[in-house]
Every structure is written in C-alpha cells, then in structure tokens.
Design a protein that fits this description.
Elements lengths: L4 H20 L21 H11 L3 E4 L16 E5 L2 E2 L3 H12 L3 E5 L2 E2 L1 H6 L2 E5 L8 E6 L8 E5 L4 E5 L6 E7 L2 E8 L7 E5 L10 H12 L7 E4 L7 H4 L3 H5 L1 H21 L17 H15 L2 H20 L11 H8 L3 H16 L5 H15 L4
Parallel strand pairs: 1-13, 2-4, 2-13, 3-5, 4-12
Antiparallel strand pairs: 6-9, 7-8, 7-10, 10-11, 11-12
Helix pairs in contact: 10-13, 12-13
Length: 390
C-alpha cells in the first residue's frame, strides 16, 4: 500500500526541525580534567600552551610517546620537557630514560598533583598532606626568591599535598605555602653538565579557567625555566587521552580531518543508496542446436568423396527397409514384384513408384560397383516413395 506524500513530507520537516533545535541548543559546560593543549574547556591547557608559544618559546614540538620512546637525536641538547597531568607515575624504563635526558643537559618540568612511588623514592622525597587547608578551594602560595618574598598568589589546588624532603640531597625550594610546605622545587642532576628536574604541584593554576586569576603565578613560575627548545607532552594526560584515541593524528591535522569526514559521509551515502535491492544480471544462452542434419551431411560428403557409392546405396536400402518394417510392417521378403498390389495397399503409394523402387534396388543388389547416377536414382526413388500423396 502506497502512503500519501504529504504526511511523509511533514514528518521529514519535523525531524529536521528537531535536529536543528537539538543542534542549536547550548551545550553544557564540560568540566573534564584534560590538561591537553588542544582543549578549550575550563580544565584544558590551550591558554597555557598558547602563552608558551607566543611569549616564551618560539620553537615548540609536541610528543605523543612516553619517555622510554624518546631518543637523544629527537631533540637538541638543552631542551625543556613539560609534562602536565594529574598523576605522574613512570615505570622503571621511563624513569631510567628521564635520568639519561637530565644527565645530557636537558630539563624536565612536571606539573602534577601526585607522583609515582618510584620517582619519589629515587629522589628521596615524600608527599605530606596539609589538613588545615583540606576544606579550602584556594591557597595562598609564594615564591621564595629574595626579590619575590612577600608577594603571595592565590591558586586553586586539587589536593593539599606538599613536598617533604627526606634527605640532605641538593634541592632548591622555589615556591609553596611556606618553606616547610613547598609545592614547587628544583632538583639538579648529579652530573656536572646535567640539567634539572622541576616539580610543581599546582596543575589547576595552569588551566584555561584559572589562568584568568593566576596568570601572574604562571608567569613567575615559568621564569625559573631556562630558554631553549620546548617539548610539550601529550602522552601523560589524565585518562591517557592522547595515547588511547586512534584518530588523534587525523583529528589534529585539518586536511586529514576534512578528508576523514568526507570519507565517512561518502560511505554513509553509499550505504543509503547502495543498499537498495539490485537485480542480478541474467546471462543469455543460445538454444541447443540439433546437429543431426550436419552430422548426416558430413558423413554423406565423406562417402561421396570416397567414391564408395555401392556401400552408401546398401546402407540407404537397409535404413529404408527398416523404415518400411516399423511404419507398415513390411518385411524384406515382401519387397518383390508379385507383391506390388499388397505393397500399394499397405503403403498407399502408387504401383508405378513401387515398381521404380524395386527396379533400382534389384539393379543395385546385382552389381558389385555402381556409379553416382545409380545412387542418385535410388535416392530419388526413396524420396518419391516417402513424399507420395494420394
């Protein structure tokens, strides 16, 4: 049953209207903790990365691999690595490679709320919790340099942790709530020409949302880092965002992103219109040809070319006698002149035609070799017998 077009058109218009309303509806704010340089959500790092690119480091590259996958020839000596995450917990291979990078004269800044046990134990550092500020969303911190003493900055903290130094290892306290509760430290490499590792426990201060309030803190914190080639990490992110997304490379490049969407749209159009039922092609076969006549003609030409007229005549007589036996029940012993009347009655053929056939058949049987004319006379006699009409 064919449905009317107007209701279908109305339903299609309503569907398009609902899709448009849903698309134009303002999206709820995404409070996901990302720390990614490409995210403009409140807890992304787009503003921080843009500040580094435009004001501090002209030469910035992005890394999507762990430290264990970074090699010395991938970056120049004196590079600065920035790892920005919520919990930095490297394994033994990554930590070993980090130490090699530091010993080669490079620097690593890790901005995170928590740190892995391997890193803390190796550096003889532990984390302590400030129970006094546990209920506060913001904390006043300061830098311990002589020129900045007395200047405090209000920052948002994800947790009330601070560093506690377990040994007398050379560690420079850069900033924190107080000298007893540092949250920004510098740990030089043990090598003479090595670099340094910087640990900062205020990741929220570097996000898009809090850069509006704590931009001065970020500016002062980054002044402690040396100049050089900057390597921005996108591997050690919350939920491993950079490493788990298989389309991250395609989505980062505009041309690949456009090509990917065109491909998806083309596949959708193909499945919509190509899913219709298609009728399979029915091949045309020529009808079978009866080659019996061609077979007989070929054999006849073979006999004619061999000039064996007697053998051909005998075969024609043999087949004709079988024809008479099957059709008229006339046995070969009845094919005699004295039986012409009986033969004419049974077959309905005139006596003259029967007599002509008997004459030529008797002549052929009496001869050892016959000519082509005799064979033709026999063929005409048989043909006249079969085609006779009363």
């Amino acid at each position: 049953m064919k449905l009317p077009k107007f209701p279908l058109l109305l339903l299609a218009m309503l569907f398009i209207l609902l899709v448009g309303i849903e698309y134009m509806k303002p999206k709820p704010l995404n409070w996901e903790v990302s720390f990614s340089s490409s995210r403009k959500i409140p807890y992304g790092a787009f503003v921080f990365h843009d500040y580094l690119k435009n004001f501090l480091y002209a030469d910035i590259e992005t890394s999507h691999v762990p430290f264990s996958g970074i090699y010395s020839n991938d970056f120049p000596t004196g590079s600065i690595f920035i790892v920005y995450t919520d919990n930095f917990d490297p394994d033994s291979y990554e930590w070993e490679r980090m130490q090699e990078i530091l010993n080669d004269g490079n620097h690593i800044l890790i901005i995170s709320t928590e740190f892995g046990r391997l890193l803390l134990d190796t550096l003889d550092i532990s984390l302590r919790f400030n129970f006094e500020d546990v209920a506060l969303k913001t904390t006043k911190v300061q830098f311990f340099a002589d020129t900045l003493q007395g200047n405090s900055f209000v920052v948002n903290k994800m947790a009330g942790y601070y560093f506690f130094l377990d040994s007398c290892r050379s560690v420079e306290l850069i900033g924190g709530i107080s000298l007893a509760q540092p949250d920004f430290i510098k740990i030089p490499s043990l090598e003479q020409d090595g670099g340094a590792m910087y640990l900062n426990m205020n990741p929220l201060a570097f996000t898009n949302f809090h850069m509006l309030d704590s931009a001065n803190y970020v500016v002062q914190a980054m002044n402690y880092l040396p100049n050089g080639h900057l390597v921005w990490d996108e591997y050690y992110k919350p939920k491993s965002e950079a490493s788990q997304n298989p389309l991250r490379v395609i989505m980062q490049l505009q041309h690949l992103r456009v090509a990917f969407f065109i491909l998806v749209l083309s596949l959708a159009v193909f499945f919509i219109f190509g899913s219709k039922r298609k009728y399979s092609y029915i091949p045309l076969y020529s009808p079978f040809i009866n080659t019996s006549r061609e077979y007989v003609v070929t054999l006849s030409r073979l006999y004619l070319s061999g000039k064996n007229h007697t053998d051909m005549a005998n075969k024609k007589l043999l087949y004709f006698r079988e024809y008479l036996r099957q059709l008229y029940q006339i046995t070969p012993d009845l094919l005699k002149r004295e039986n012409i009347q009986l033969l004419s009655q049974r077959t309905g053929v005139s006596k003259e035609i029967i007599l002509n056939f008997l004459d030529i058949s008797d002549y052929i049987r009496s001869q050892n070799n016959i000519g082509e004319n005799s064979l033709k006379r026999l063929s005409e006699a048989i043909k006249d017998f079969k085609n006779f009409k009363k």
